[in-house]
Design goal:
The protein has 11 helices and 18 strands. The termini are close together. The protein folds into 2 domains: 198 residues, Medium-chain alcohol dehydrogenases, catalytic domain (Quinone Oxidoreductase, Chain A, domain 1, Alpha-Beta Complex), CATH 3.90.180.10; 129 residues, NAD(P)-binding Rossmann-like Domain (Rossmann fold, 3-Layer(aba) Sandwich), CATH 3.40.50.720. Strands 3, 5, 6, 9, 10, 17 and 18 form a 7-stranded mixed β-sheet that branches. Strands 13-12-11-14-15-16 form a 6-stranded parallel β-sheet, sandwiched between helices. It is an alpha/beta fold. 26% of the residues lie in helices and 27% in strands. α4 packs across α5. It is globular, with a radius of gyration of 20 Å. A hairpin with a 7-residue loop joins β1 and β2. It binds zinc ion (2 copies). The site of one zinc ion has 6 residues, from α4.
Length: 343
């Protein structure tokens, strides 16, 4: 089978290779991939900013059909429509594993980073990580369960009350999902971007996000102040990973506001105004990836129509056209790009 493999660390080194079809071992299932999404972190990996266990098949956001059950698997049947958490191995013994915080286990191995992932036709997942798709969730949407779970994780780390003003900085897929999850909690949501993000801000409007702001043309602070009697935003989610956005997020918050860092800075050093955190008594939370408890609620959000993930898909390519996919993302023309397997 053909697989899109990061062959070596460093810039590039991405190749479609022939790989042997894997077999499901004990307590594992074999999934035929229908769609696999390209994540911002895959771009970082391509560009050499992230370490993965090369050579490895990338792709940690995927959905497909179960085609083989390993020994000891009774929870699933052949033909089940599923997605899988990225967790492939955890130590199971550290304090984080015991509390279900697998995203923090030091020994965790993830699909598409340390273990072969979804940019191919078949992959192997551990049965504990696999989730069946609810009726109203199609394969395209389901391939975005992982990023949605990441945003569910971030939003769940803050407290949002009905009518709170939430600012989401960065209208990429993660920002657009965060905005929808925050709205599902009753918030009034403002999403911000730059001139280059026009397509993404238009998408936010289409998704019913309350306010979309191009911060190169409009004064975001003025809007936030007008909506909050000058107090400032209740919650800010920084989803761009752009260094100036972190400062802007702190500026927009009210006293006792909450700041959630979701975007990845890819090794950039970030000056962060601790004085402002003291003076405004801001609560800062980081959110890394997702954990098991985020998955079923994320599938439910899509099933109930509270999150429209499919609307983010602007491009689909088969894995041999990965360079076109990369260009579409880098140019700002694409929002979410899904890859499909080839024979
Ligand atoms: Zn991802
Ligand atoms: Zn552990």
């Amino acid at each position: 089978m053909k697989a899109l493999v990061k062959t070596e660390l460093g810039f590039g080194n991405l190749e479609v290779q022939d790989r042997e079809e894997p077999k499901a071992g004990k307590d594992q299932v074999k999934i035929e991939v229908k769609y696999a999404g390209i994540c911002g972190s895959d771009i970082h990996t391509y560009e050499g900013h992230y370490k993965v266990a090369a050579p490895v098949t990338l792709g940690h956001e995927f959905a497909g059909e179960i085609v083989e059950l390993g020994e000891g698997v009774t929870e699933f049947s052949i033909g089940d429509r599923v997605t899988s958490e990225t967790t492939f191995y955890i130590c199971g013994e550290c304090e984080y594993c015991k509390s279900g915080d697998y995203n923090l286990c030091n020994h965790r191995k993830g699909l598409g980073t340390q273990q072969d992932g979804g940019f191919t036709k078949y992959l192997i997942a551990r049965k504990e990580s696999v989730h069946k798709l609810p009726e109203n969730v199609d394969y395209q949407s389901a391939s975005m369960t992982e990023p949605l779970a990441c945003t569910h994780h971030a939003v769940s780390k803050t407290e949002i009350n009905e009518g709170d003003i939430v600012v989401v900085i960065g209208p990429g897929p993660i920002g657009l999902l965060t905005a929808q999850v925050a709205k599902s909690r009753g918030a009034t949501v403002i999403i911000t971007g730059l001139t280059n993000d026009r397509i993404r801000l238009d998408k936010a409007k289409e998704l019913g996000i309350d306010y979309t702001v191009n911060t190169q043309e409009e004064d975001i602070k003025e809007l936030v102040n007008s909506l909050t009697d000058g107090y400032g935003a209740d919650v800010v989610f920084e989803c761009s990973g752009a260094v100036p956005a972190a400062k802007q997020g702190l500026d927009l918050l009210r006293k006792k506001g909450q700041y959630g860092q979701v975007g990845l800075f890819a090794n950039a050093e970030v000056p962060f105004d601790l004085e402002k955190i003291i003076q405004k008594e801001i609560r800062v939370v980081g959110s890394r990836s997702q954990k098991p408890a985020d998955w079923e609620p994320s599938l439910a959000l899509m099933n109930e129509g509270k999150v429209n993930a499919k609307a983010l898909v602007t491009h689909e390519f088969d894995i041999t056209k990965w360079d076109e996919a990369y260009q579409a993302i880098k140019s700002g023309e694409a929002i979410k790009v899904l890859l499909t397997p080839v024979q």
